[in-house]
């Protein structure tokens, strides 16, 4: 029988197959996996891959959303739509105590805010759920510190990352063995780039929060960033004016910390075309990352994803 | 995504190897820059960093683009494998950046394990050095078939053709001794960007491809090989029969049983005759299931779910293979090992071996030789230390499904994991089987262990007593056997008396001999278990790793570890045989508890506290737990 031996897989096909392989390996080797679901584009691709990996069965793990209380309303709507459509199990973790104490993204220094509302909440939720493996949507092309992250990365008791003590990762062989108190962070999208993510979303029709596509939206310019007036909690300061602009987001987090970019790209193809000529890396829009260089490494050591 | 037509670009994985200061970081920075994989904000940071800590005065120091972690940045070195991404019009690249320090062999091996191509970098002023040979040997060892020599810093030798020609010839001669066939050489300047993505005006005498052009053709060459249009040396995935390691059984309901995995060799279509190894059972493929619909065929590299025509046993760790062209099954191999841990290899000690989706207990013999990676010569060795590479026999507790590494990386590459620390301690590449399980290909043995156990009307088990000398293991073991026998059970007691005087009379009490002692006892216990017996053993068996090895040899749930827990002071006070006194006097060497350690079980199935229970009560408890 002659089969199409010359048929070679494209980069997206290879990346998809590899990510599915990783998802299955970890599910087969861990007792209680969970998937971090931030509702952004990377999370959306990761969820799409997971649904494929375990088809025709249901997802063999719950989704975990770390809700800061300042999520874009459109993200929550998208999340609930996906959960209903696929019958997913969703855990929402929120640091109500810190919120009640008045911690918020406008007044609290960003590093403190992200630690309390995101990092600590995440660590607490992982510990509470007894999860021994957590999938995250991190990519190696995002940041220099991530370039050296393993696909399957062991975290110690405090869930911190020790860049000097990582297991070598060869071939497709992951070492998932743990001692008590240790857990795995797993990055199935490690080898994807931002361009791959967008091309895949377009090729596969991956459902996406509409905020990624340009539209006229109410914004305010603050600290050089374009902030969406998503609800009335983002009060205008003296001298600030609300205006309508054609904007979209390259990355989504807490709305008072996520800067939009002005754009007319209202379709996926237009977004991809814009990205090809764009010269800004995506994290530029994320206030969380406006710390000194190499700060991602510090955050990872503390247990951030 | 699974369905044709092919979308997008070929994906090529590359590693770069070079010694410190050959200009590797600069070259990679330049590749990223020329491939427009550097964004404006990264350029800004680069410019700022270049002024602050750069080595190029006012100019950009591309090396700073790629140096990742702050600790190593401060030291000015690269300490681990980092992955970079860039694309050209014709291909997408994932580049593993491997440091050139000699103590980091393991990083290069890690990066090389997934690479299709290697860029070996030399400084034009120094030419081919020991390190160059070392990197090339490693690339070859890991099965990289496309190697290019990038002769860097041509600007510092006046762009002289003769210098380049001499280095290229040197390298070609060396590569030929390795059997590395066709290697390319390209004269470049990473600093100035000559022959990286653009042909160099300063080296008009060079007519060959730029580095980028060479990288772009890697996948094309691979395709021609797969098609049989090019001579293939030890190839992989695309040719040959189906290799499908089962990762996970998908059973959403009673009507569907799918085997999920990634095809690592060959191709598959519904109706194909396949075998499930290692059992050897034969069936046909029913469907190739994906979320995008059933496929008419699938090839190496795809993740799919296969359903089988017959309802036969097939679980994670099994490999579905082409019936006409099956993989091999064996439990002893010759393999090359790259040692990656600070603790040296301990021959005879049990490690976990992971190959594909199979995880088994395995031991490594004393190495046949150690490889001198500087020149390829063989040195004698008793062990392997961090970054040591050697060839040794590896024995697995159960037969595994494999292929030589040179034929298929996924079927022949494995890692060893320390059973205590869980560290990945070694990478291995199988050469060939030393002892084949040929008959396994035919049919599974007609009378199975389950049938033998059923004939005896009992559940076989191994009751493994462990504890200090004088703890009461033999006493309790004897009572247990007597009672089980009285209850009509079929038993056998293995202890020092019937083993040390016969089967193991050639063994002493060194650590290595103790390990071998337990290994043999484990093998005998396993045979008796297969015969349907309840096996009772009474050995000090002081090391966790060896007890774990025996546990792994027998089917899940059949190993019952019984910890006879007696404080050392009590055992020594009893000293029935006067052995502790002799050991204390120095007349007995390597005595457990005195000058050799006892590692108590962390989670034994049964723990007997002899200070609270009599031997009879202990035996009752054990029997109640066994039969209850
Ligand atoms: N003249 C010249 N210098 C180079 C070239 N490539 C790298 N260098 C210099 O060589 C030194 C070491 O380069 P680097 O990229 O840090 O080397 P690595 O240790 O291999 O990563 C630096 O001072 C570079 O600027 C080149 O093509 N020509």
- Give average pLDDT of chain B, whole number: 85
Radius of gyration of chain B: 30 Å
Strand order in the largest sheet of chain A: 3-2-1-4-6-5
Low-confidence stretches of chain A: 1-6, 283-295
Helix content of chain A: 25-40%
Strand content of chain B: 25-35%
Structural class of chain B: alpha/beta
Termini Cα gap of chain B: 53 Å
Helix content of chain B: 25-40%
- For the secondary structure, the number of strands of chain B is 27
How far the N terminus sits from the C terminus of chain A, by CA atoms, comes to 48 Å
Structure description:
The complex is a heterodimer of chains A (305) and B (628). Chain A is built from eight helices and ten strands. By secondary structure, chain A is an alpha/beta fold. Chain B is globular and about 95 Å long. Chains A and B meet through helix 1, helix 2 and helix 6 of A and helix 2, helix 4, strand 2, helix 5 and helix 9 of B.
Q: How do the helices and strands line up, and which of them pair or pack?
A:
The complex is a heterodimer of chains A (305) and B (628).
Chain A: H1 11-29, E1 33-36, H2 41-53, E2 63-66, H3 73-86, E3 90-93, H4 96-100, H5 110-129, E4 133-135, E5 152-155, E6 183-186, H6 194-204, E7 215-222, E8 225-228, E9 243-248, E10 261-262, H7 268-277, H8 295-302
Parallel strand pairs in A: 1-2, 1-4, 2-3, 4-6
Antiparallel strand pairs in A: 5-6, 7-8, 7-9, 9-10
Helix pairs in contact in A: 1-2, 6-7
Chain B: E1 11-17, H1 24-34, H2 40-53, H3 63-66, H4 70-75, E2 82-87, E3 92-97, H5 105-112, E4 117-123, H6 130-141, E5 146-152, H7 161-178, E6 184-187, H8 211-216, H9 218-226, E7 243-253, E8 256-262, E9 267-268, E10 273-277, E11 281-289, E12 298-299, E13 303-308, E14 319-322, E15 328-339, E16 350-355, E17 358-364, E18 369-371, E19 378-379, E20 389-402, H10 409-412, E21 413-417, E22 424-436, H11 449-456, E23 461-466, H12 473-486, E24 491-495, H13 496-500, H14 511-530, E25 534-538, H15 544-553, E26 559-565, H16 568-574, H17 579-584, E27 606-609, H18 615-627
Parallel strand pairs in B: 1-3, 1-4, 4-5, 5-6, 23-25, 23-26, 24-25, 26-27
Antiparallel strand pairs in B: 2-3, 7-8, 7-14, 8-13, 9-12, 10-11, 10-14, 11-13, 15-20, 15-22, 16-17, 16-21, 17-20, 18-19, 18-20, 21-22
Helix pairs in contact in B: 6-7, 12-18, 14-15
Bound molecules: guanosine-5'-diphosphate.
């Amino acid at each position: 029988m002659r089969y199409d031996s010359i048929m070679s897989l494209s980069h997206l096909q290879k990346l998809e197959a590899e990510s599915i392989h990783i998802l299955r390996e970890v599910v087969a080797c861990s007792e209680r996996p969970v998937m971090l679901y931030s509702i952004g584009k990377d999370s959306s691709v990761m969820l799409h891959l997971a649904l494929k990996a375990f088809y025709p069965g249901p997802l063999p793990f719950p989704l975990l959303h770390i809700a800061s209380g300042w999520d874009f309303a459109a993200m929550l709507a998208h999340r609930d739509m996906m959960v209903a459509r696929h019958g997913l199990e969703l855990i929402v973790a929120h640091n109500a105590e810190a919120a009640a104490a008045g911690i918020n993204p406008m007044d609290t220094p960003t590093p403190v805010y992200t630690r309390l509302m995101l990092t600590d909440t995440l660590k607490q939720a992982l510990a509470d759920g007894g999860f021994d493996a957590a999938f995250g949507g991190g990519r190696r092309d995002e940041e220099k510190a991530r370039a050296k992250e393993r696909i399957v990365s062991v975290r110690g008791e405090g869930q911190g990352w020790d860049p000097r003590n990582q297991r070598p990762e060869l071939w497709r062989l992951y070492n998932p063995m743990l001692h008590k108190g240790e857990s795995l962070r797993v990055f199935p999208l490690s080898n994807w780039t931002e361009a791959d993510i967008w091309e895949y979303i377009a090729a596969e029709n991956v459902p996406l929060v509409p905020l990624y596509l340009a539209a006229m939206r109410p914004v305010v310019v603050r600290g050089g960033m374009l902030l969406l007036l998503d609800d009335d909690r983002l009060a205008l300061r003296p001298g600030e004016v609300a205006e309508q602009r054609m904007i979209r987001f390259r990355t989504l987090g807490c709305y008072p910390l996520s800067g939009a970019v002005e754009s007319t790209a209202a379709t996926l193809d237009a977004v991809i075309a814009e990205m090809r000529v764009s010269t800004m890396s995506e994290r530029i829009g994320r206030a969380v990352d406006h710390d000194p260089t190499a700060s991602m490494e510090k955050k990872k050591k503390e247990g951030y994803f | 995504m699974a369905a044709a037509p092919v979308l997008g670009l070929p994906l090529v994985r590359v590693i770069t190897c070079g010694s410190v200061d050959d200009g590797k970081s600069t070259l990679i920075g330049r590749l990223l820059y020329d491939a427009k994989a550097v964004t404006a904000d990264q350029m800004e940071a680069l410019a700022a960093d270049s002024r602050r800590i750069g080595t190029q005065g006012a100019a950009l120091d591309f090396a700073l683009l790629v140096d990742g972690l702050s600790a190593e940045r401060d030291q000015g070195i690269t300490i681990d494998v980092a992955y970079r991404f860039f694309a050209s019009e014709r291909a997408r690249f994932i580049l593993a950046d491997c440091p050139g320090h000699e103590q980091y062999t393991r990083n290069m091996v890690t990066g090389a394990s997934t690479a299709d191509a290697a860029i070996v970098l030399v400084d034009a002023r120094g030419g081919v050095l020991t390190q160059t040979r070392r990197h090339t040997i490693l690339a070859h060892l890991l099965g990289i078939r496309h190697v290019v020599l990038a002769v860097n810093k041509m600007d510092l030798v006046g762009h002289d053709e003769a210098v380049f020609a001499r280095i290229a010839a040197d390298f070609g001669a060396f590569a030929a001794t390795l059997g590395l066939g066709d290697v390319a050489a390209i004269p470049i300047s990473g600093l100035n960007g000559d022959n990286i993505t653009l042909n160099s005006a300063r080296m008009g005498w060079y007519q060959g491809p730029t580095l980028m052009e060479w990288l772009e053709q890697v996948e094309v060459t691979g395709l021609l090989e797969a098609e049989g249009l090019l001579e293939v040396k030890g190839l992989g995935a695309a040719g040959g029969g189906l290799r499908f390691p089962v990762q996970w059984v998908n059973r959403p309901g009673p009507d569907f049983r799918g085997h999920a995995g990634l095809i690592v060799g060959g191709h598959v279509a519904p109706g194909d005759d396949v075998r499930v190894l290692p059992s050897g059972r034969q069936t046909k493929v029913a469907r190739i299931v994906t979320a995008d619909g059933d496929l008419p065929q699938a090839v190496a590299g795809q993740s799919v779910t296969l359903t089988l025509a017959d309802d036969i046993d097939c679980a994670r760790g099994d490999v579905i293979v082409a019936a006409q062209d099956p993989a091999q099954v064996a439990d002893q191999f010759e393999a090359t090992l790259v040692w990656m841990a600070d603790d040296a290899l301990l021959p005879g000690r049990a490690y976990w071996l992971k190959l594909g989706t199979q995880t088994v207990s395995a031991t490594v013999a004393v190495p046949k030789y150690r490889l001198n990676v500087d020149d390829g010569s063989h040195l004698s060795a008793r062990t392997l230390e961090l970054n040591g590479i050697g060839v040794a026999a590896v024995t697995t507790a159960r037969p595994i499904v494999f292929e030589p590494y040179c034929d298929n990386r996924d079927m022949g590459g494995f890692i060893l994991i320390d059973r205590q620390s869980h560290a990945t301690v070694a990478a291995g590449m199988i050469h060939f089987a030393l002892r084949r399980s040929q008959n396994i290909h035919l049919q599974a043995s007609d009378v199975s262990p389950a049938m033998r156990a059923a004939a005896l009307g009992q559940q076989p088990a191994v009751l493994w007593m462990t504890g200090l000398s004088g703890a009461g293991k033999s006493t309790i073991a004897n009572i247990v056997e007597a009672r089980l026998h009285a209850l009509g059970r079929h038993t056998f007691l293995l202890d020092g008396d019937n083993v040390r005087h016969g089967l193991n009379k050639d063994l002493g009490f060194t650590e290595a001999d103790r390990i071998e002692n337990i290994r043999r006892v484990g093998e005998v216990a396993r045979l008796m278990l297969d015969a349907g017996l309840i096996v009772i053993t009474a050995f000090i068996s002081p090391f966790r790793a060896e007890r774990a090895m025996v546990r792994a040899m027998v089917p899940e749930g059949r190993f019952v570890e019984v910890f006879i827990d007696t404080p050392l002071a009590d055992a020594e006070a009893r000293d029935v045989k006067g052995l502790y006194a002799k050991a204390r006097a120095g007349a007995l060497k390597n005595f457990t508890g005195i000058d050799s350690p006892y590692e108590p079980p962390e989670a034994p199935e049964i723990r007997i506290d002899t200070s609270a229970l009599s031997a009879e009560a202990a035996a009752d408890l054990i029997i109640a737990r066994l039969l209850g």
